[in-house]
Design a protein that fits this description.
With 364 residues, the chain is an alpha/beta fold. It has 15 helices and five strands. It folds into two domains: 128 residues, 3-Layer(aba) Sandwich (Rossmann fold); 179 residues, Orthogonal Bundle (Hypothetical protein af1432), CATH 1.10.3210.10. It has a five-stranded parallel sheet with strand order 2-1-3-4-5, sandwiched between helices. The structure holds fe (ii) ion (2 copies).
Length: 364
């Protein structure tokens, strides 16, 4: 006997047969519901029955139609259905299969055969229900874990963004310190980042690299922190010795930024060290030439030159942008990478647009 009492719905228009089948089924230890025709059978499936034992031919609605309707109803679609048919009714059996009947039993119903068929189908149904429940439980668990995981990921992303924000802020402040010392402006270092980004994008560098350029290019002159004010702020030309000291802002910057695990600072280090190298090898500190100079530094040297000259300084007025572009073009292939110069010239409209933003709202 199962712990739970199965409820069997018996549908038959013949009262004697109904009564006989009901007696059998009760004798097996199951509860019984009775229906006198198909319509009543459909109505009673909603009473929480576990199996339907139905006659094939009944008035109002026959057993085939009952089976079809039950299969179309979500709450009863997997209810086991056993149809009572005559041995020779082969056509009935084919139609019944199509309608969704699970099993047959011949008229007149044999007591033992009915007991075994019901037992087997009810056990199968119980196993299927359990499977369905554990599948649902599994789905619920997966959905819950997914929600938890998503929440945790959002938290990690938020924290990473905060750290990244603080990280970039630190870089910006460090860079500003060097630029203030040199009478440059916050506007200058920001523009260098943005110009470099524009050029990097126009050169189709990888997006990650373009992002790095935005934050790394402003670090180019960070080494000026190590140059004595007497040289850095001197009005008028530097002598040879002073010039040599001044040029060490590249190696000093390289040292300040060396050994970092941060890709932004690593790129900043390369730019600080090599932004005064020249395409033809006549630059400093190492006389690198051509592709031996990192692309980020080749970009930075063009935009730095452009921005420095088009910017007002305490000791000289800004040079017009047309004139500066001509100067850059004249130095293409000697000081500057010709490809970067080409790209820069093509991107001028965008560069000037960025410059305008700073003229409207000057940053100090
Ligand atoms: Fe520099
Ligand atoms: Fe600069």
């Amino acid at each position: 006997m199962p712990e739970y009492n199965y409820r069997i719905l018996i549908a038959d228009d013949d009262e004697m047969i109904r009564t006989l089948h009901a007696e059998f089924v009760r004798g097996f230890g199951y509860d019984v519901e009775i229906a006198a025709d198909g319509l009543e059978a459909i109505a009673k499936t909603s009473l929480g029955v576990d199996l339907l034992l139905t006659d094939a031919h009944m008035p109002n609605m026959d057993g085939f139609e009952v089976a079809r309707r039950i299969r179309r109803t979500r709450t009863s679609e997997d209810l086991p259905i056993v149809m009572v048919t005559s041995l020779d009714a082969r056509e009935d059996r084919l139609r019944a299969y199509e309608a969704g009947v699970n099993d047959f039993i011949n008229k007149p119903v044999d007591h033992t055969e009915l007991r075994l068929r019901l037992k087997w189908l009810l056990e199968l149904k119980t196993a299927q229900d359990q499977l369905k429940r554990s599948k649902q439980n599994l789905e619920d668990t997966v959905a819950l874990r997914t929600r938890e995981l998503r929440g945790a990921l959002e938290e990690v992303t938020r924290a990473q963004r905060e750290i990244q924000g603080a990280h970039l802020d630190t870089i910006r402040r460090l860079t500003l310190a060097a630029e203030y010392k040199d009478h440059d402006t916050a506007g200058h270092i920001e523009r260098i980042g943005r110009f470099s980004q524009v050029i990097g994008m126009a050169m189709h560098l990888q997006p990650g690299m373009v992002d790095l350029l935005l934050h790394a290019a402003p670090m180019h002159d960070v080494g000026k922190l190590g140059i004595p004010d007497s040289i850095l702020l001197k009005q008028g030309p530097l002598d040879r010795e002073e010039r040599a000291i001044m040029n060490t802002h590249t190696t000093i910057g390289g040292e300040i930024l060396s050994g970092s695990s941060s890709p932004v600072i690593q790129m900043g280090q390369r730019i600080a060290l090599t932004h005064h190298e020249k395409w033809d090898g006549s630059g400093y500190p190492n006389g690198l030439s051509g592709d031996a100079i990192p692309i980020e530094a080749r970009i930075c040297s063009v935009v730095d030159y452009y921005d420095a000259l088009t910017m007002d300084r305490p000791y000289r007025e800004a040079v017009g942008s047309d004139e500066v572009v001509e100067m850059i073009e004249a130095d293409s292939g000697s000081a500057f990478d010709p490809h970067v110069v080409d790209i820069f010239v093509k991107a001028r409209v965008e560069i000037e647009k960025i410059q305008l933003e700073y003229i409207v709202e000057p940053t100090t």
